[in-house]
Design a protein that fits this description.
Two copies of one chain form a homodimer. The first copy, chain A, is α/β, with parallel strands linked by helices. Chain A has two domains: 345 residues, Amino acid/polyamine transporter I (Up-down Bundle), CATH 1.20.1740.10; 133 residues, Rossmann fold (3-Layer(aba) Sandwich), CATH 3.40.50. Helix content of chain A is 63%, strand content 7%. Chain A has 25 helices and nine strands. In chain A, the strands form two sheets. Chain A has a five-stranded parallel β-sheet with strand order 6-5-4-7-8, sandwiched between helices. A three-stranded antiparallel β-sheet of chain A has the order 1-2-3. In chain A, helix 3 runs antiparallel to helix 10. The interface between A and B is large, with 124 and 126 residues. Strand 9 of chain A pairs antiparallel with strand 6 of chain B, so a sheet runs across the interface. Chains A, B: It is found in: Membrane. Chains A, B: It comes from Paeniglutamicibacter kerguelensis. Chains A, B: Its main location: membrane. Chains A, B: It is a multi-pass membrane protein.
Chain lengths: 678, 678
């Protein structure tokens, strides 16, 4: 059974890698740019849509201001990028906002940032792949309705790729992003030229009328209108996620790391701004009409839209208008968008396990998340991310307009705390800098972070204010729960560390006075004889065989057999009026302890090793229960003496040690301080 | 957590009983009769209904022959009773048909009988309590639709009563059965008198017309009609279940056990015959019209029956006709029927765990079924029965006409094999008896069992022929699966016994040459120091501390700390290029074994004992995995050195040993044959 699962694992994941393979050549800028930018750029696949369909609630004229909303978002982005360019120089370790918040604002803020980022990475995967599934459906309408399956398939593929780990070429990540940027620039340029020539086509949805929501009778006027614009802005802020990627991955860059990261940030910002704004202006020019639910939000000549109408994403409608519906250009744009969304999810598959591993090292998450798997990836982190993302995809049926409500909360919590941390950072620097010139530079830096703080805090307030009831509460809840979990786990680890620390006065060479060995006997068969032999070999000060009299017939038979065989160990029968095994045994051990408190008691328990899972159900149940119970008794060591039933031969872990053989090398690191034989 | 569950258990089940309490006064006949008869008599609650509604498929005139069908069933019953009266004298151990089949026909037949009876006991509970739920609804129509819940509540109540075990008064079982017999006799007598006076009322359903099934256009004529009569007969055979109860419980009777059991069998038969036939004749007289589905099978003045019409069982309709609808008599009959059905299920709750325990002792079921619980009942058997019965109740929504199709198969498999076994038994007796007189007696006995065999085999054939597709296949499947399970488990136990038996030539005093102890070190903290101290206390021939280098930073820190503390044990670092712990360790152990094959290797593993369930998730994962893997290595003993974290204090099993204290008494049964200290 095990070897079969092992074989499946080998096929899916590949042969294990040696630890030395961790060392990897640093990333050069031209390969780093696409990887670092994918997350930020991929939002062009959904952010313009979300801005437009939010504004569409107030009617088609309201949709016309979407490019202006996009412009404001880009301004915010540049402020954040400018401040991150400073941060990455001050904290070039790759531990990112988590480190900035921890160091400057204390562990509570650090934990909050970490919780927020973990939630955000999960949402990056869920939103990107849900969006990708709609691009797949736009290209292949026959798949309509399968969006959750498609997105799940994406998660599974990425999970396997990441479990396979460091085998992949970096080019495979870089190429689609460059192609996407190129294709989008080409499309926007063509669109611009057509528009100038007056030959620009119309979007497939241009002919539909947008039915305004009854809640917005006067378009964007009044408080309701203002709130709607703010909601569109906060939804569109999804375009800002991914800006934190360079600072979280700066350690993988070629030297000079920090300067390269700063350059990459700027390039990312410029490309994102051109593509996002170009898309939004062009979408207005070709009259893209998108709404949350086409069946109720759109009409055609006063009647409903045709049955089975599938609303393509904005990029799809642009490609349709510029290249034509079934054209190569259309399919290329669709395909490349899906590829970029996959690369963006892939960066989350890198960031999440990385952050989780950092948190595990600091004792905020279970230690298992620190372990590198066969292929050197943090397998447990990768699997946790995959499960969480798949759960979200199915709960929301891969519906981007709903998922997007949860998004952004996490990243803006982290932005805001990071800005605050940097303000503190500069304040400290200032206190340590007497010279005038450097002081002026530091003050300028601090001012930038102050502007950044006000801006990101304002966006966070807008996001929470306009979207809390639309779904953001779930993200907030996730962050709070994760925070509580990490905090209590950390307290636990700290408490255990203190409890287990070796006291300065403690002599590491103190020994228990005497060893009193007990062999637990049920039926007198080979395993018991072996347990007795092993117990005798350990030369205890005192050795007893113990039978607990839970079944008088069996007890008598065992004692008789013991005498018949002439085993040179005294046997003691413990009365058990309530047919229990553990209670009389523990009572007996306690009575020994009362008489000689400094004795060490070793209980030898014969145990079966079985090969089939159901055999475990019919053997050892009592042994396991007794062992668990004896663990609670102070001063007792439980020694399992295994007896391998013949059925266990096939299940033995024979093959797996071969694997280790080539690398096995025993080195005696420390010479014996004294001889152990005393 | 544990102490809370313990408290709940104490409230539900009560304080544990001492083993001595098992000895119980034997049952006298007048208390045994009701208990032994309940199962047989309780079928009056549903068997007449099933006969009538099966015949109703061929129309109302076909229903008129139901008393004749009942008469044939009673004839079969008396043959079976007569043969059981012989069997119980030959096999008075209380192991019943299982023993008769095992001894005379071999273990395969015995296992078949056991599997059949286990299935049948589950069905007894499911059918009886489903039927009881309909009586409850007849008395309280507001509960209509809740039948599965009511039946489940019955199972839960009986389970708790049986887990509480021997505390109950036998009178509580006996009284309702006597009252039921009395009340039914009174009702039948009154009905007879009213009929003679011509003042007998009509059943509530007398006014309805029965709509014949289109499959039976000519009533009971032809082959279809004959098959329907046979089906009615086989369904009505449910009245025969319960005849096996006396032979399965003969050991609880007062002396002379076998003769008392035979007398009880006869009395049971007479009472059952009078009540069953009386009920069926009277039901015809008051024109009870019952069908499987009143909505399609009944009509009123050519139209459908009123909406919400609840079809009362036959006994209910009789009570209605004789005592009146809302009368005390009606409610008394309903209540007593429910009580008798509960007592009948209760006998199954006795028989199933008893048989399961016998099977476990013989190695056909897991040993856990042999363990007596706190209150001396076979708790695991009781719980298994309860789960199986509840599953059946919910799968069939407590619908008796469907459940009854599964019933009877098991009991007739066991009847038939038991008769065959008795024929063999008499054959053997005959071979050993030379005298003429006793030979004639034996031949008469054998003839009776031959008649019984032909009859029960014929009924089994009819049951399988007419009901296999109606649901009996599920019971057959259950028997086959259970047989396969018991058979393979038995093979396993036999194989293990052979494997573990101590060879005659084997010296029980052979000792391993030397002991080589290894202490597994991860971080150097208190638990490791304790493990080292314990290992040194056991004075091994050789002692090594082992660090597996899965994480180079941690390894260096551990080795440095080891040196700093001056622990007088050499430390060995094992290389682990694939970051595994077990594989390098096992490779190292194998290399030791290669050098000195007769050495015993003891691996000391420091282990945390934690108090909260989630702490188990974040500790010990590696220790548990290593232990499991080391169990497969021959010649290795794993010694767990527990370190109790402070959180484990509250969860320690402190209280439970007090319970054992009063009965605790250590007796040295065998004087030391030689001194263990060598």
């Amino acid at each position: 059974m095990l070897s079969f699962l092992d074989a499946v694992k080998r096929i899916l994941v590949g042969r294990p890698f040696r630890t030395e393979r961790l060392k990897q050549a640093p990333l050069r800028k031209r390969l780093a740019l696409p990887v670092f930018a994918a997350s930020g750029l991929s939002s062009i696949a959904y952010a313009p849509d979300e801005v437009m369909l939010t504004l569409a609630l107030a009617g088609v004229t309201a949709m016309a201001i979407s490019p202006q909303v996009g412009l404001v978002i880009m301004v915010v982005m540049f402020v954040i990028i400018a401040s991150y360019r400073q941060s990455v120089k001050a904290y070039p370790s790759g531990r990112g906002d988590y480190e900035i918040a921890s160091v400057n604002l204390g562990p509570k803020a650090g934990t909050t940032v970490a919780a927020a980022l973990l939630v955000d990475f999960v949402l990056t995967v869920a939103v990107s792949l849900s969006s990708a599934s709609h691009y797949v459906i736009a290209a292949f309408p026959a798949l309509a309705g399968m969006q959750a399956w498609i997105a799940t398939a994406g998660v599974v593929i990425l999970t396997l790729l990441n479990l396979r780990g460091r085998g992949r070429s970096r080019l495979a990540n870089a190429a689609p992003v460059y192609l996407f940027i190129g294709a989008l620039l080409l499309m926007l340029a063509l669109g611009g030229i057509f528009a100038a020539m007056g030959t620009l086509g119309q979007a497939p949805s241009a002919g539909f009328e947008v039915i305004p929501d009854p809640a917005y009778p006067d378009g964007l006027t009044g408080v309701a209108g203002l709130l709607l614009v703010l909601r569109a802005f906060s939804t569109g802020s999804a375009a800002l996620t991914g800006v934190e990627v360079p600072i979280s991955n700066v350690h993988t860059l070629a030297e000079p790391k920090a300067r390269n990261a700063a350059t990459l940030l700027l390039m990312l910002g410029l490309i994102a701004a051109v593509l996002t704004l170009g898309t939004m202006y062009l979408a207005r020019a070709v009259n893209v009409h998108v709404v949350e639910d086409p069946a109720t939000g759109l009409s055609l000549d006063g009647g409903p839209v045709p049955a089975g109408y599938i609303q393509d994403p904005v990029l799809g409608q642009l490609a349709h208008a510029i290249f034509g519906g079934e054209s190569v250009g259309f399919f290329a744009i669709m395909l490349l968008t899906v590829a970029v969304l996959l690369v963006a999810s892939h960066t989350a598959f890198n960031s999440f396990p990385n952050l989780a591993s950092n948190l595990a090292t600091d004792g905020y998450l279970p230690r298992q998340l620190r372990t590198r798997g066969d292929r050197l990836g943090f397998s447990n982190g990768i699997l946790s991310l995959a499960f969480a993302a798949i759960a979200l995809i199915w709960v929301f049926n891969a519906h981007v307009p709903t998922l997007i409500q949860l998004y952004v909360v996490g990243v803006f919590v982290s932005f805001t705390l990071s800005q605050l941390g940097m303000i503190k950072h500069w304040g400290r620097e200032l206190a340590m800098t007497p010279d005038k010139r450097p002081r002026a530079r530091i003050q300028r830096s601090r001012l930038l972070n102050m502007v950044g703080f006000v801006l990101t805090a304002a966006v966070l307030a807008i996001v929470l204010g306009t979207r809390l009831i639309h779904g953001a509460w779930l993200a907030v809840l996730g962050i709070v729960v994760l925070y509580a979990l990490m905090d209590s786990l950390h307290r636990h680890y700290v408490a255990v560390d203190e409890e287990l620390a070796i006291d300065t006065g403690q002599s590491p060479t103190a020994l228990p006075a005497r060893v009193h060995a007990l062999v637990l006997v049920s039926t007198v068969r080979k395993p018991v004889l072996r347990a007795v032999a092993f117990a005798r070999a350990s030369r205890p000060s005192k050795l007893d065989a113990i039978v607990v009299d839970a079944d008088s017939e069996q007890t008598e038979a065992s004692v008789a057999e013991w005498e018949r065989l002439g085993i040179p160990v005294p046997i003691t029968v413990l009365a058990s009026p309530y047919r229990e095994i553990s209670a009389p045994l523990i009572e007996y051990i306690r009575s020994i302890k009362r008489d000689s408190p400094r004795d060490l008691i070793v209980v030898y328990i014969p145990e079966y090793v079985v090969g089939r899972w159901w055999e475990q159900l019919v053997h050892n149940q009592t042994a396991v229960r007794i062992k668990n119970r004896l663990h609670y008794e102070p001063g007792v060591v439980v020694a399992s003496v295994p007896w391998r039933l013949s059925s266990s031969d096939s299940a033995a872990y024979g093959g797996s040690t071969e694997q280790a053989s080539p690398g096995h090398k025993t080195i005696s690191a420390v010479p014996p301080v004294s001889n152990a034989k005393d």
